[in-house]
Design goal:
There is one protein chain. This protein is mostly helical and 117 residues long.
Length: 117
């Protein structure tokens, strides 16, 4: 994959990681939903984050990245208990983890199509 695309993916991955944390820890009365439903929002957010992280970090093993992102999702899910009006749910974590898996598959397909950089 070209170095410029890898750098852009890195910037996007960093922004996604920060945005996921901010949105995960907002108090309930400050949350704005997309209308797609919470589970789909978790799935999409983590799929995009995982895809960009994979495209940006070609040297990290996929399983290591998956474990890191699932751990991140788990920690954020637990920290939601500290946000006013929020709670943590196992099913939200499951959709986040599924999003990680989907994002990594999409990134693998993209990397094969883009070729080596």
């Amino acid at each position: 994959m070209p170095a410029t695309l890898r750098r852009l993916a890195g910037i996007g991955a960093g922004l996604c990681c920060v945005l996921v944390a901010v949105l995960s820890l907002l108090p309930a009365d400050e949350m704005r939903r997309t209308g797609a439903g919470g589970h789909l929002e978790h799935l999409a957010a983590y799929a995009a984050t995982a895809c960009l992280c994979r495209l940006a970090t070609c040297r990290m093993r996929t399983t290591t990245l998956a474990l890191c992102l699932c751990g991140y999702a788990g920690v954020l899910e637990l920290l939601q208990q500290l946000a006013p009006g929020r709670s943590s749910k196992v099913e939200d974590f499951a959709f986040s983890a599924a999003g990680v898996a989907i994002g990594l598959v999409v990134a693998a397909v993209a990397q094969r199509r883009l070729g080596p950089g």
